[in-house]
Write a structure and sequence with these properties.
Shape: elongated
Distance between the termini: 142 Å
CATH architecture of the largest domain: Alpha-Beta Barrel
Number of domains: 4
CATH topology of the largest domain: TIM Barrel
Strand order of the largest sheet: 14-15-18-19-20-21-22-23
CATH class of the largest domain: Alpha Beta
Radius of gyration: 51 Å
Number of helices: 30
Largest sheet: 8 strands, mixed, barrel
Mean pLDDT: 81
Length: 741
């Protein structure tokens, strides 16, 4: 019994199960076979006419085929309709054979019908045809053998030929059955693979925490995963006809393209981030990604969508974490939207003056606390509805609806508010702000308005800070000039600096003897055209961009090399040090390294000139830094003395060795007794503090005489020589002394 069961199982494995054709595919095949059956009536009629007349055989055949065609068309059930088609083909093939008087080749029609009926992939029509064909060959072969088998042997022995024909048809049917079975096996494997893929897709679709949905091109929702339902609080089962337009999300911008429109327009993957409103009035930012599924005609069939709620991320991008104001990205987006309204919009660009000193001196926590306080003051100073942002560091920007006058009033209020002391943990900070104002009326110029206000702010800062400036075209020209100067300076620093940034020297002369006792090192920039450009064209941009640091180091190196070369022929060289250089944390270590590398015999032969601006820059550790410079043996000079409101204070608080009187005191000294009195007082005070004095800007012999009269030790100016290259300066050194002309 076990062997029989195994044999049955094997046979069952080789026999097709039948069915399995989808309804739409079966209907298409049935229409084809019914049409072929109906066409046999036309074919047999034409054949009968060609053979000499439509006889009884033709009439009986046609009358039997037509009911089969009619039943195949009218009946709804699959099986009976397909059986009628099978019987109709049996009649058509039998009539065809009879009309040709049993011609052997006419029997080929049965094999054609077997192959055609296999399209049903159903045992009922297939079996009905095999049974009907066998009965036809047996019955008609015995009754009308001449019209069934067209040769003498079949007429005398019709049963044998009926068996032979039946076996041939069965073999053809068997081969069709094998092909049928193989096709079923392949489809079963394909279906198994498809089921596995769908299972994987279902797991990925349903179990992922990312909200996902499948849509049709007209917006009907075919399927959503649990995460999508939870995200939008949708019911477990969506109502029929539920559309994306029924979702509880409404785009903030009604003019934006919908997902469906964008998907149809692009024909490829779509990704965007948009703000939507919920029914409760809250807003949510959604990052949407979609891919379209298209058929072979490139028609969009389905849209696969997954959504990421990026509200918190968008808030972090659009909002400054420290102050709660808009970030740069959020401000730029809102400004473009505000400017699109067509009304004038004014921009305030603010920078807190010398804020770096707050972080350096009081710590970053105090700086952060101060920024939060200033953000609150700014918010109170501008009209309600203004856009307010922190662009990073100590820069704030505000956009106000209205003309320039509105922004100017608000800007002045901001300057006054920022000048009030700021309470922080451990004390109060005295701050100030530089404010720039620009106005835009064209929506496409919003970004340029911010740049223009930034330009005006820098103009306010260069003018001393704690003030407001309104943008003008002259400022734009100045900015372009600074950009060009910066580019030239960068190019010069990248080249051979001894050629592109030559250092020149102006002699410092003893008042009493006329001998050169020192020199001031100054830098020039050689442009691409070979011309030398003065410091007025590039020192300002160098200070603003920080390029003054490598530039200053280059001047120091050149000065130290020349000092060593000139030896005892020159007492000292003075070099200007900018506030930006002095504020660098590694300035003193760099100075020590350069002194060691050049091997200068006496560091006191180097004098660093420091302006009052540097002393006012509130460098946190300025006293300690000046003491460290002095500890290296380098001397210090107070440059441009007398131009600041507190210069006399620096004489007692700064460990200076030299005081350089500004040229404004020297010009016209011989004709101004008051200037002579002031210089005499400074000389007396400097001597009492152990300092020496150099008077700058001597351009006339009378100035030399007047300075000799008040016993000033040293002088410099164009009367003796302008700043000259090294070779020319060495020629001056070889001169014994300058002679009064």
């Amino acid at each position: 019994m076990g062997q029989v069961s195994r044999l049955r199982g094997r046979l069952r494995g080789w026999i097709p199960t039948g069915g399995g054709v989808r309804p739409e595919d079966w209907a298409r095949r049935h229409r084809l076979l019914t049409l072929l059956l109906a066409s046999t009536v036309v074919g047999l009629t034409g054949l009968g006419a060609a053979l000499g007349g439509l006889d009884l055989v033709w009439l009986v055949t046609v009358l039997l085929i037509l009911p089969c065609v009619l039943g195949a068309v009218r009946l709804r059930g699959r099986r009976l309709a397909s059986i009628l088609v099978a019987l109709g083909f049996t009649v058509a093939c039998g009539g065809f054979v009879a009309m040709l008087d049993g011609l052997t080749e006419a029997h080929f029609s049965f094999f054609i019908a077997v192959a055609a009926l296999a399209l049903y992939r159903d045992w009922a029509p297939f079996g009905a045809f095999l049974v009907a064909t066998t009965l036809h060959h047996a019955a008609f072969g015995a009754v009308a053998s001449e019209q069934t088998y067209g040769h003498h042997g079949a007429v005398t022995n019709p049963l044998m030929w009926a068996v032979l024909h039946g076996v041939a048809v069965l073999m053809a049917a068997g081969l069709q059955t094998v092909a049928w079975r193989l096709t079923e096996s392949e489809e079963q494997r394909a279906q198994a693979d498809l089921d596995e893929s769908e299972a994987h897709l279902s797991i990925a679709f349903d179990q992922t925490p990312v909200p996902m949905a499948i849509l049709t091109p007209d917006g009907a929702i075919r399927r959503v995963n649990p995460a999508y339902r939870r995200w939008l609080d949708l019911p477990e089962t969506l109502p029929d006809g539920f559309n994306v337009r029924d979702l509880p999300l409404v785009p903030t911008d009604p003019n934006s393209l919908s997902l469906l429109e964008e998907q149809a327009r692009t024909g490829s993957a779509v990704a965007f981030t948009r703000e939507y409103h919920r029914p409760d009035g809250s807003s949510v930012w959604v990052e949407v990604h979609s891919n379209g599924l298209r058929d072979r005609q490139d028609r969009l069939r389905l849209i696969f969508v997954h959504c990421l709620d990026v509200t918190e991320v968008q808030r972090q991008v659009r909002q400054d974490a420290l102050t709660g104001l808009l970030s740069r990205a959020g401000f730029e987006e809102e400004l473009a939207r505000t400017a699109a309204g067509g009304e004038p919009v004014s921009v305030l660009y603010l920078d807190v003056d010398r804020f770096k000193a707050v972080n350096d001196g009081s710590g970053h926590s105090a700086g952060d606390e101060a920024l939060r306080v200033l953000a609150g003051r700014l918010t109170r100073c501008v009209p309600a509805g203004s856009l307010i942002a922190r662009f990073g560091g100590d820069e704030f920007v505000a956009a106000l609806p209205g003309p320039t006058e509105v922004a100017v009033r608000a800007g002045r209020a901001v300057v006054a508010a920022f000048a009030e002391p700021v309470p922080v943990a451990g004390g109060r900070l005295q701050l100030a702000a530089s404010v720039g104002v620009a106005t835009v009326s064209d929506p496409g110029q919003a970004e340029q308005a911010v740049l223009a206000a930034d330009t005006a702010m820098y103009a306010a800062k260069r003018a001393g800070g704690n003030r407001l400036e309104i943008f003008s075209e002259q400022m734009r020209v100045a900015v372009r000039q600074r950009i060009v100067a910066e580019a030239r300076l960068r190019e010069a620093l990248a080249g051979d600096r001894d050629v592109t940034l030559p250092v020149v020297f102006q002699p410092i002369v003893s008042v009493s003897t006329g001998h050169i006792v020192g020199a001031e090192a100054l830098v020039r920039m050689r442009a691409a055209d070979g011309l030398l450009r003065g410091p007025g064209e590039f020192i300002g941009p160098a200070e603003e961009t920080g390029l003054i640091v490598p530039l200053g180091e280059h001047v120091l190196c050149s000065a130290l090399r020349q000092l060593r070369r000139w030896g005892q022929d020159l007492d000292y060289v003075s070099v200007n040090v900018s506030p930006r250089q002095l504020s660098e944390a590694d300035f003193v270590p760099t100075l020590a390294r350069l002194l060691a590398e050049t091997g200068l015999d006496d560091p006191a032969r180097l004098v660093l000139e420091i302006t009052e601006t540097a002393l006012l820059s509130t460098i946190a550790d300025l006293p300690a830094r000046l003491d460290a410079i002095k500890a290296l043996g380098v001397r210090l000079a107070l440059d441009d003395f007398g131009t600041g409101y507190s210069s006399l204070t620096w004489l007692q608080s700064v460990p200076a060795d030299v005081v350089k009187l500004d040229r404004s005191f020297v010009a016209g000294l011989a004709r101004d007794a008051r200037k002579a009195s002031i210089i005499s007082a400074v000389l007396w005070l400097a001597r009492s503090l152990g300092m020496t004095v150099v008077a700058e800007g001597v351009e006339e012999a009378e100035d030399w005489d007047a300075l000799r009269a008040v016993d000033c030790p040293a002088i410099q100016g164009y009367y003796f020589s302008p700043p000259v290259p090294v070779a020319d300066f060495e020629a001056l050194l070889r001169t014994s002394a300058f002679v009064h002309r």
